[in-house]
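Input set for joint prediction.
Command: fold jointly, output tokens.
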Amino acid sequence: MRSIPAALLLSACAALTACGNTAKQEQAEADKRAAGFVPPSVMSRLDYGSMVERRFHALDRDGDNMVSADELPRQDSRLTALDKDKDGRISSEEWGQGMIGRFDRLDANRDGSLTTDERAAEGRMKR
Ligand SMILES: [Ca+2]
Ligand SMILES: [Ca+2]
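tokens >
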């Protein structure tokens, strides 16, 4: 189980709003955040919803409200599975529904929040 230093989260948030970076640097930062993304240890469904929305917009680099294959940080079957209408792009609706569905699957005791333990169960499922 990994714990996340608060400072790391803060710096990631600061980077989101930082000005003065070149577009290329920002893109590299967005890739890093998307690829190495680790949410806080306990998260409510509401927080999760706004977090996945922020993540969607971080991935949607051209701002067309669609995450296309070239905007995904890597080929990730869990992400491409979100593309319900199979048009090769993930809309914000597809993204939101898929991510909230994932939250509800992981929320083993249905208390509306995800703990690190519940998230760790997902890690075990992947292997
Ligand atoms: Ca896009
Ligand atoms: Ca789609």
